[in-house]
Amino acid sequence: LRQGTFYLTDTIKFGSQDNGLTIMNYKNEEVWISGAKVITPKWTSWRTSGQDNIYVADLSSEGIKNIPGLRVNGKRGIRARYPNADPELGFGSSLSAKKWLPSTLPSTPDQEIYPDKPLRDSANMFQHYQLGVGGPCKNFDPPAGYWCGSKTQGGGAFTYRVPSGMIADKSVLPNQPYKNATGAIVQAWRPGHWASWMFEVGKYDADTSTFTFSKGGFQGARGNDNGDEFYIENVMEELDSPNEWYFDQQTMKLYFFYNASSGTMPPEDTVYEAVGLKTFFDIEGTQDAPVKNMKIMGVNFRDSAYTYMDPHGMPSGGDWGLERMGVLFLEGTEEVLVDSCVFERLDGNAIMLSGYNRNTTIQRNEFVWIGSTAIALWGDTKGTNVTGMGWDGTDGNQPRFIRILYNFAHELGIWEKQSSFYFQAKSCQNLIRGNIFFNGPRAGINFNDGFGGGSNVTENLLFNTCRESGEHGPFNSWDRQVYITKVLDGTPRPDKLYDYISYNFM
């Protein structure tokens, strides 16, 4: 690829017919692939007196339906919110709701899976595989998980539930009443700061200041009756601070608070980009016919849309809820290389390895200003009637022998606070070496379970982790679920190889 920015309107799909393909920059030229669309708003004054400097533009001729994110000269604009804050600098709120409304989810699963075998009898806890199907997990994808069963253990365990809404009157949100809060997003901490939740407002009662949620709360696997600190965004009445914007989908008008004295128009050479695409490259084969030997080298990726309201699943027995998505999505691959790329201001995950992947190498890349996680690995198992879930990992349908080498990652978790530089669930025998990570809200490296073992975390530098969340450290792991693999000695068994953590500076 030659120098410049390539704007994608659709995901590019690769399959086994693309074996051996190399995508790279030409002779060290700077190449960017963007998931945004350049727009050319023709601003007119809307509210430009006193402390305000807000302009409006009709975008009905721009060919877009929504603007989930806006870039202004390459930087994130701030979707109108209260309290005012720059999300790239942290959560930015200490607001407390007057009341969180009770969960409306079923309290018990439709099906409880808790087999006698396999049995891990090396301890008094976490001896059995357990899974709750449906019920409280009905909004997850797939609709099942460890925390939706009734036999959860450890860490103040209880069956998953989340609030159905909140009451926040003018003492909390002083710019009420809102004309239309439908589609607003409430971003809230789970108590204990274990994860952040995002809820979409489906109904708003101005008389009682009641916000009823239509979806959300699945961004972490550990529920609660209440939320903690929160902020609200995507509300017109909260457009009152420099660099904030609001897009009205009904009128197709974009409002923007330009950071200058009242009456000063935005410069004509300002570049505005509306993000829209979530996955740029979808590299998919199968375990029997994998995509082999693809290389992505020296190509940079920026400006994907957020995915925090897309379906999330419970990958295994850890605390994470996760969307099986990424700007680079790999499933059914062997010997794929991602080398010397920059991933910048992506609003979801940067790289997702899903299901069967072997000998992937992700090396010498930079990840910066990422909305969620930089690199996530999520395998599949079987043994139940839920696709991808069960105790049996002997078929190898997981990321294995993945090499994460000499990457540089910082300023992650802009949106989803339960995020890391590196995450693995139902994955094993991987090498994480020589990486530098700092400035993230949660653990830098996270193992969501003890599946298989045989991974090596070595010679990494991790600091300034857990900046916003409670407990944890630069490395975190759980091992609540029981899995059967052949990793230890070639026979199916619940025991695992040791994972090694050595020669790191944390």
Describe this structure in words.
With 506 residues, the chain is mainly beta. Helices cover 0% and strands 34% of the residues. It is built from no helices and 45 strands. Strands 2, 24, 25, 28, 31, 34, 35, 38, 41 and 44 form a ten-stranded parallel β-sheet that branches. A hairpin with a 2-residue loop joins strand 8 (69-72) and strand 9. The radius of gyration is 23 Å and the shape is globular. The mean pLDDT is 97.
Poorly predicted ranges: none
Count of beta strands: 45
Q: Which bin fits the share of residues in helices? A: under 10%
Number of helices: 0
Average pLDDT for all residues = 97
Which structural class do you get from the secondary structure elements?
mainly beta
The coarse silhouette is: globular
Beta-strand content estimate: 25-35%
- Beginning-to-end CA distance, first to last residue: 38 Å
Radius of gyration: 23 Å
User: What profile does the largest beta sheet have?
Assistant: 10 strands, parallel
